[in-house]
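4.2 Preliminary Data

To establish feasibility before requesting continued support, the project team ran the inverse folding procedure on a target of 442 residues. The structure was first converted into the token representation described in Section 3, and no sequence information of any kind was made available to the design step. The complete token record follows.
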């Protein structure tokens, strides 16, 4: 069956701010309490989506979540009117208000793990919503993510959206950021590689300083839910030493497309064995391992060169979509330029300014969820979320009318911000034909 890879990017929400909520994600910690610019953040994301759509890639949008999350603050004991809930939370627990207001759902590589229909026994595209159990502000995303994915991939004959795994550390699951799929044509059965940071039973090596968010048990459960062929499914551990250097998701140190794995030399535990296991299953497998003497793990974390999108071009070559930070770094840019000139599969570099997202540790790959689709499946999804000239203009105008260009933690208590968010999201559900998907609409 003919198929292609579509990308769905998270649209940055109105409350995008820097709260230092993600221990182990060094950008998040470093930029805590810096003022943010939600309007710029949303527009930077839209520009990337539009550029990819213009190049001929199928590109969709995943809407932001309802924030601040008032029902959550009420669940935590803040009561009274909406205004009183915000005021009390701001006074007594500003970090909880930040968590309940985080726009972190923008990083949709952590929304779900996706398996294409060619790999699943029942011939459907499977999604398992990530429970994001390691961080409170992210764990609250799961139910809303499920609702949004069902409002986009809404035909149960073609799509199956599984709820998140149980919300306990043993099943910590961070979605597609720890998942790769290899193969030749997208429509042929592929080989899926699940990468975990630790064994949920605390066996084997673990990082010493920072948390390992993904467990092996979670990856195994997702593979079962997606009805994958065990012969075509691999599980591997991320190197705990690089987690301790700030590689909190595997997509900070590796990216793949079809036969190519572009990764750092220190990405995985027992890397030579893993590469030979993949080679045994994927014909013409082409690993590109970046040696530490060319790019250190620290430089990889600071520039996010692996948090890139590796896209297929019509001529058979591949394009690497990178954040501006990798161009700014002389050594990293020199390596990438040499890579393109080396005659290998990566033939082109394209750079985007995603600074607002990068300041919270999210690069080009974090902002997108890859979904391999057949043409029939593409026609079955909600067409209103697909990027084109008109949607780009509509969403830019929507952002201009509703988003602030400066936000700090203190602003989160402003009841006007809550109203602005509800007005904007109410309008968005109509623009994207989502139905009454948000709690405040029900
Ligand atoms: N894939 C990229 C995810 C980045 C995300 N950052 C955050 O949630 C930072 C939020 C803050 O600190 O305000 C995370 O660490 O999960």
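Position-by-position output of the design step:
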């Amino acid at each position: 069956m003919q198929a292609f890879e579509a990308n769905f990017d998270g649209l940055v929400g109105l409350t995008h701010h820097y709260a230092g909520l993600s221990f182990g994600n060094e950008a998040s910690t470093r930029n805590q309490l810096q003022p943010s610019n939600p309007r710029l953040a949303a527009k930077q994301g839209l520009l990337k989506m539009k550029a990819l759509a213009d190049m001929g890639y199928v590109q969709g949008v995943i809407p932001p979540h309802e924030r601040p999350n008032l029902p959550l603050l009420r669940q935590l004991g803040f009561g009274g009117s909406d205004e009183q809930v915000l005021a009390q939370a701001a006074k007594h627990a500003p970090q909880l208000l930040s968590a309940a207001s985080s726009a972190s759902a923008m990083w949709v590589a952590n929304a779900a793990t996706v398996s294409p229909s060619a790999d699943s026994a029942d011939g459907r595209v499977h999604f398992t919503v990530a429970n994001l159990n390691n961080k409170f502000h992210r764990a609250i995303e799961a139910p809303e993510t499920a609702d949004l994915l069902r409002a986009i991939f809404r035909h149960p004959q073609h799509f199956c959206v599984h709820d998140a795994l149980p919300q306990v550390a043993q099943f910590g699951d961070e979605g597609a950021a720890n998942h790769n799929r290899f193969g030749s044509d997208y429509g042929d059965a592929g080989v899926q590689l699940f990468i975990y940071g630790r064994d949920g039973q605390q066996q084997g090596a673990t990082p010493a300083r920072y948390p390992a968010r993904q467990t092996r048990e979670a990856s195994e459960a997702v593979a079962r839910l997606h009805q994958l062929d065990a012969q075509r499914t691999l599980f591997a551990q991320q190197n705990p030493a690089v987690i301790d250097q700030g590689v909190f998701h595997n997509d900070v140190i590796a990216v793949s497309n079809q036969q190519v794995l572009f990764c750092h030399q220190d990405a995985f535990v027992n890397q030579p064995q893993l590469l030979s296991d993949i080679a045994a299953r994927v014909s013409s497998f082409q690993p590109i391992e970046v040696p530490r003497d060319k790019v250190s793990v620290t430089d990889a974390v600071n520039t996010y060169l692996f948090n890139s999108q590796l896209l297929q071009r019509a001529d058979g070559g591949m394009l690497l979509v990178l954040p501006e930070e990798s161009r700014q770094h002389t050594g990293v840019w020199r390596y990438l330029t040499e890579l393109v000139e080396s005659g290998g599969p990566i033939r082109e570099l394209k750079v985007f300014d995603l600074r607002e997202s990068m300041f919270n540790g999210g690069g080009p790959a974090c902002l997108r969820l890859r979904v391999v689709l057949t043409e029939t499946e593409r026609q079955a999804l909600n067409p209103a979320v697909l990027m084109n000239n008109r949607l780009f203009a509509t969403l830019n105008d929507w952002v201009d009318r509703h988003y602030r260009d400066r936000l700090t933690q203190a602003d989160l208590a402003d009841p006007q911000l809550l109203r602005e968010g509800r007005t904007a999201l109410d309008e968005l559900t109509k623009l994207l034909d989502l139905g009454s998907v948000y709690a405040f609409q029900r």
